[in-house]
């Protein structure tokens, strides 16, 4: 079948007699060429379905209009298509001429178009997944390929030197994370305005009031406010409304020369005693250092000593210490129990 989008056969009859011919040319605006040629039907033809022979010396070249609008990612510079800024690859422009049969006009409609391909959008890199309480990654959101961003310590309370992270030029993966090495961040807690009982701050050091010296060591803590039971492990947690400002300091013992062993004995944080036996009345829980309470046994238990006074030692540092001198509890006999009912 003759490509009527390539050749203009408007001067040719619908049917050719053997040995006859007609003048054909390239069909504009879809194809361009020089001159015309003679299309013929061979004299010896005996095939009623044979197409005419087109001139071999008639060269027709596709002529596509400029695309409008130009697809994203492409631009034409000095007559050549190339990838636009932000895109990577080699631009390829194909001129296509489509023959579309119209059922309305019962004719072939020709459509010429430029198909551009080969350029892919460069993707931004994503920020690293780091502890946002320590690191500030806000500068590394959607980093363009070939550029850098800065990873910083979240201050306060962390301090350190920022480092560069980079997104490689030509990145096509939208899920790629920037190339990075995290900065070295050190927790710097402020000097506490109010210190726990038994402590003092002097010349950059935390000191027990009995003279035992401590050195400062930062340690990040997330949780409830708590105090340990030993002076050497005393912790203070300063809490704010979000995790980015939670910080803590730990005071480590630098023991001075002494014949005393076993660490710091200074009563820094007196703790409440606990009556852990479930047979004790709830009212006896929570006696503080030096406090006392009276306990008795609940039926059917009894104690020959009757009620006893239990004492929490005045120098207690153990928050889990039961009350001292708890009575020995034992069941009464069944007969004695039912006799009293």
What would you say this structure looks like, in words?
With 341 residues, this protein is an all-beta fold. It has five domains: 1-63, no CATH class; 74-121, no CATH class; 135-187, no CATH class; 199-254, no CATH class; 282-338, no CATH class. The protein has one helix spanning 334-339, and strands at 7-8, 21-26, 31-32, 37-40, 61-62, 74-77, 80-83, 87-102, 107-121, 135-136, 147-153, 158-159, 163-167, 186-187, 199-202, 205-208, 213-218, 235-238, 247-254, 292-295, 301-302, 308-311, 330-331. The strands form nine sheets. A five-stranded antiparallel beta sheet has the order 15-16-17-19-18, with no helix packed on it. A three-stranded antiparallel beta sheet has the order 1-2-4, with no helix packed on it. A three-stranded antiparallel beta sheet has the order 10-11-13, with no helix packed on it. It is elongated, with a radius of gyration of 47 Å.
